[in-house]
Amino acid sequence: MEEETHTDAKIRAENGTGSSPRGPGCSLRHFACEQNLLSRPDGSASFLQGDTSVLAGVYGPAEVKVSKEIFNKATLEVILRPKIGLPGVAEKSRERLIRNTCEAVVLGTLHPRTSITVVLQVVSDAGSLLACCLNAACMALVDAGVPMRALFCGVACALDSDGTLVLDPTSKQEKEARAVLTFALDSVERKLLMSSTKGLYSDTELQQCLAAAQAASQHVFRFYRESLQRRYSKS
Amino acid sequence: MAAGFKTVEPLEYYRRFLKENCRPDGRELGEFRTTTVNIGSISTADGSALVKLGNTTVICGVKAEFAAPSTDAPDKGYVVPNVDLPPLCSSRFRSGPPGEEAQVASQFIADVIENSQIIQKEDLCISPGKLVWVLYCDLICLDYDGNILDACTFALLAALKNVQLPEVTINEETALAEVNLKKKSYLNIRTHPVATSFAVFDDTLLIVDPTGEEEHLATGTLTIVMDEEGKLCCLHKPETGTSFSFF
User: Fold this and answer.
1) Which residues of B touch A (CB under 8 A)?
2) What distance in Å separates residue B110's CA from the closest CA in chain A?
3) Residue A5: inside a domain, yes or no?
4) Which residue among A162, A188, B41, B69 sits deepest, i.e. has the most Cβ atoms within 10 Å of its Cβ?
5) Secondary structure (DSSP) of A98-113
């Protein structure tokens, strides 16, 4: 019964205000998601944000090594492979961030003494990479059917030298920015699950960025919902 | 009897203390452990510092060497941090290549140096395009009792303030560098970033400077690095059993 269960769910999210240059405020780049594209992993997803693309695969719940097993919950592992070269310390740090975000939402206690592995491959990097990785990981976990208490999404924002906020920055905008902040938000109450920042900023700017990210996450969650509805609907 | 209860139900034991707004070691929720700093203890290093935050001990040694700058930044030196968590400091670490925690801590320190601009990389330039200083900062944890990131940031800052670089001139005839060990000068430290770590308990309580046990029992941790002007250099919220709202 190995039929082609290749359900493409290519949805275009509504664009912000037209193409580049994006104005300050809340326009995210155009994004797309495709699920169930790999045959080996239990779940897989490819998430595109503008030109940034990440492919995620999830294996689990599966057998775990005795040294790594936790008696009352699932052991979550994240492997992030960069586009070029061998994974380094920066990848390890990002893996830790993604893993902790996933651990906060995955109901690990339903599958004790098992392992859930999320493998992320960077296909192209054009800014907001960590946010794209988080989105791809979430979609892949949903595709694998791993029980979760909420969905999560990643939103990146950049602050340039005069304090203007740009959501979902491109790599050029990230390079020129004074600070780049990435947040992971959950779908139930838009609470902050993880944050990772680069650069100097004041605490009022932090609050502004967080508020903008929470507003933007509405779009991302709506996109997830539409994408999944399209995939599972009969028509 | 209290010791028995602590072994069987560590979280409940802890909650009893938190209800009274204090912790088992007698500290308040917002109180830091006694901090001791010892500067310049390693004579063979160009700069060193030993920091003790309660029981957590981190030593930082800085060695300066020559290097050729990269072609896209010919007037910038390098600062290379490395955090080592040897089996000496805690039974949870094994000998061998650096584990995940050490790599994450190294990346964190590298981010703090980069974001807070603690040293202007141009200050480390000797001769643009030919010779620059590279500062290898090795942070070794001697005793792990929680809050390693704060201790490392502090040790790094103290050691960098202690670094003395000799004067270097390039001899035009031989094109070799001449080091004058008698004339040494301190580094120009532009900002003083300070890291503060918090542990989150049951989504509601925030305690400062968690010990090893507290980190293990907490539902999440959060580290904020600020400089003197009150600007945040880093907001590191990696671990969380659950989420919390900011406002």
Assistant:
1) 100, 103-104, 106-108, 110-111, 114-117, 227, 230-247
2) 10
3) no
4) B69
5) HHHHHHHHB-GGGSTT
CATH of the domain at A45: 3.30.230.70
Mean pLDDT of B154-161: 95
Question: Which residue segment(s) compose the domain that A74 sits in?
Answer: 31-233
CB of A214 closer than 8 Å to CB of A177: no
Model pLDDT for residues B5-61, shown as the tens digit of each residue: 888 888 888 888 888 888 888 888 888 999 999 999 999 999 999 999 999 999 999
* ipTM surpasses 0.90: no
Interface test with A, best of B235, B236, B245, B247 (most A CBs within 10 A): B235
Measured between beta carbons, which residues in chain B are less than 8 angstroms from residue A92? 100, 103-104, 107
| Closest CA of chain B from A184, distance in Å | 10
Task: Judge whether A34 and A16 are in contact, CB under 8 Å.
Answer: no
What are the pLDDT digits (tens) for B214-231?
888 888 888 889 888 766
- Residue A172: is its pLDDT beyond 90? yes
Residue of B110, B114, B231 with shortest CB distance to A202: B231
- Concatenating the DSSP letter of every residue in B72-98 gives TSTT--EEEEEEE--TTT-TT--SSS-
E-state strands within chain A: 31-35, 43-49, 52-62, 75-81, 115-124, 152-159, 165-167, 179-186, 192-199
Size of chain B in residues? 247
What's the CA gap between A61 and A69, in Å, rounded? 12
Best mutation target, A193, A197, A202, to test chain B (most B CBs within 10 A)? A197
For residues A35 and A58, give the distance between their C-alpha atoms in angstroms, rounded to a whole number.
11
In a domain, A82, yes or no: yes
* Partner residue facing A191 (CB), from B106, B117, B243: B243
Mean pLDDT, rounded, for A61-79: 94
Sheet strands side by side (includes A75-81): A31-35, A43-49, A52-62, A115-124, A75-81
- Classify residue A14: in a domain, yes or no: no
Q: Which of residues 190-219 of A touch B (CB under 8 A)?
A: 191-203, 206-207, 210
Nearest to B100 among A96, A104, A196 (CB): A96
Q: What residues pair up with B60 in beta bridges, in sequence order?
A: B49, B139
d(CA A41, CA A146): 13
Q: Which of A172-176, A199-203, B34-38, B84-88 has the lowest mean pLDDT?
A: A199-203
In a domain, A3, yes or no: no
Instruction: Using an 8 Å CB-CB cutoff, list chain A residues near B231.
Output: 200-202
CB spacing of B238 vs A197 below 8 angstroms: no
In chain A, the number of structural domains is 1
Contact by Cβ (8 Å): B79, B137: yes
